[in-house]
Specification:
The chain contains 13 helices and 10 strands. It is α/β, with parallel strands linked by helices. The chain has an 8-stranded mixed beta barrel, surrounded by 4 helices. Helix 9 (about 190) links the parallel strand 6 and strand 7 (about 195-200). Helix 4 (about 85-105) packs parallel to helix 6. The longest helix has 21 residues, at about 85-105. The radius of gyration is 21 Å and the shape is globular. It binds ligand C2E and calcium ion (3 copies). One calcium ion (CA) binds near residues 200 and 234.
Length: about 280
């Protein structure tokens, strides 16, 4: 019977594609990653078009896996969302980033805003605003230096609107990430306490290649200007893209053309040289 069980298992196992197997392995080791302190945050500067000064940093999580090396969020965030682990992981990110930012300020570096990605699951939590208030109080970070990036789909759900209002009342900046990638009505921008939109890299990629992408970007810039929203373009990789965005009066840019996401210990030198005092 034992032998049979083994064979059955093998049979079942062989129907799994390597992807599913890998996901399973990630799922298992992800559970211990927080306790084992395997996560690290990298920071990518956000630059003011024109002045070239750094106005903010986006915090991006990486997983320092004992066997796989540095694992990118694309390989584990969706699994963390499925399992609910994103809630404690997201809280760790917020706490780490707020403490880091406060430490940089106390070391005398020019203060810049730090943007943190929130997942839908985190947003749906009860008392998110209270949680964040607690983190701000514990770390001593001024809320004007915290920015939360949410997706269009999170922004459009009316069940999230009271939380958004609470966060705005706390003077936290709210931005819409990956703007334009979902079919959505623009009317939510009119009702919501949002400060900033981030043009998705998929549009920026088309600059100087696809006039339709350029047209969409110009429309987004126009909407943002008329609604008094700050607008940032993501994934800027070339001088041509940068010049197009500068010419069309985009406020801020983020991308490999200026900086890749950097480990925390590279940030002090970068801020000292390129952030406004
Ligand atoms: P995102 O929020 O859209 O972040 C931007 C992604 O684009 C980052 O990938 C960044 O490294 C990459 N990027 C920046 N500039 C360029 C460029 O010029 N060219 C190209 N090709 N890529 C560029 P990353 O770090 O792998 O993160 C992927 C996604 O994982 C993020 O997309 C975000 O949705 C998610 N993520 C990252 N950190 C967190 C986190 O702490 N919490 C949650 N919930 N999600 C996170
Ligand atoms: Ca983001
Ligand atoms: Ca994005
Ligand atoms: Ca994205």
């Amino acid at each position: 019977a034992k032998e049979e069980g083994k064979n059955n298992f093998r049979l079942y196992d062989s129907t799994l594609n390597p992807n599913a197997e890998e996901r399973m392995e990630i799922k298992n080791s992800l559970r211990y990653a927080l306790d084992r302190q395997e996560f690290v945050i990298h920071y990518q500067p956000q630059i003011e078009v024109g002045s070239g000064q750094i106005l903010g940093l986006e915090a991006l999580i990486r997983w320092n896996h004992p066997k796989r090396g540095l694992v990118m969020p694309g390989s584990f965030i969706s699994i963390a969302e499925e399992t609910g682990l994103i809630v404690p992981i997201g809280e760790w990110v917020l706490r780490t980033v707020c403490a880091q930012s406060k430490a940089w300020q106390e070391a005398g570096l020019p203060p810049v805003r730090i943007a943190v990605n929130l997942s839908g699951r985190q947003f749906a939590q009860n008392q998110l605003a209270e949680h964040i208030q607690e983190i701000l109080t514990d770390t001593g970070l001024d809320p004007t230096y915290l920015e939360l990036e949410i997706t269009e789909s999170m922004a459009m759900q009316d069940k999230n609107w009271t939380t958004l209002e609470e966060l705005r009342k706390m003077n936290i900046t709210i931005s819409i990430d990956d703007f334009g990638t979902h079919y959505s009505s623009l009317s939510y921008l009119k009702h919501l306490p949002v400060n900033k939109i981030k043009i998705d890299r998929s549009f920026v990629d088309g600059i100087a290649k696809d006039p339709k992408d350029e047209a969409i970007i110009m429309a987004m810039l126009l909407v943002a200007r008329h609604l008094n929203l700050t607008i940032l373009a993501e994934g800027v990789e070339t001088a041509e893209q940068y010049l197009f965005l500068e010419h069309n009066q985009c406020d801020e840019i983020q991308g490999y053309f200026f900086y890749k996401p950097q480990p925390a210990d590279h940030i002090p030198k970068i801020l000292r040289e390129h952030a406004p005092d």
